[in-house]
């Protein structure tokens, strides 16, 4: 499979919820873009998830991040740490995300926290912050089959419990993927 050079960095907030993380991973495997994250992004989503979900263990989340790194072998961005101190963002704790995006020549940071990545701070680097729904909607415009296939694959692997199409689309809707669900709804018969 040929890999696109278009690169997207996933912020920790979009990796925190398992259904969205899984969908984004299936999309990343489509070859339509290069999905990226950093060790600091992994640490952030896992730390926040452990703080809110005492039923989960560090080992479970380390296994998940390890599987992510195996699924997309070049997904893990390193060597960006020296860039962090020279960056300016409203929240200094988000600078590592921008540094990772700069390091891997990303065009997009996929995040719910668009206000934390203002266009004025990102534009000099040719980077844009996008809500995951807009990101998927743009991908849908580029390659509907890739998005539908990712949804099919994700839904097929949900076995405990299995989800019918309506429940699956409800799960995506709860992730804030309004336009995505609307677009996928037209493919309900094959999801």
Give a short synopsis of this structure:
The protein has 191 residues and is an alpha/beta fold.
List key phrases describing it.
single chain, 191 residues, alpha/beta, Rossmann fold, 4 strands, globular
Task: Give structural notes.
By secondary structure, the chain is an alpha/beta fold. The chain has two domains: 7-132, Rossmann fold (3-Layer(aba) Sandwich), CATH 3.40.50; 138-186. Helices cover 54% and strands 7% of the residues. It has eleven helices and four strands; from the N terminus they run βααβααααβαβαααα. A four-stranded parallel sheet has the order 2-1-3-4, sandwiched between helices. Helix 7 links the parallel strand 3 and strand 4 (128-130). Helix 2 crosses helix 9, helix 8 (132-142) packs parallel to helix 11 and helix 10 (165-174) runs antiparallel to helix 11 (178-185). It is globular, with a radius of gyration of 16 Å. The two termini are 23 Å apart. The model has no long low-confidence stretch (mean pLDDT 96).
Please indicate the percent range of residues in DSSP E strands (runs of 2 or more): 5-15%
Number of strands: 4
What composes the largest sheet?
Answer: 4 strands, parallel
> In which range does the helix fraction lie?
40-55%
Mean pLDDT: 96
Order of helices and strands: EHHEHHHHEHEHHHH
The name of the CATH architecture of the largest domain is: 3-Layer(aba) Sandwich
Low-confidence stretches: none
Shape: globular
The secondary-structure class comes to alpha/beta
Give the class-level CATH name of the largest domain. Alpha Beta
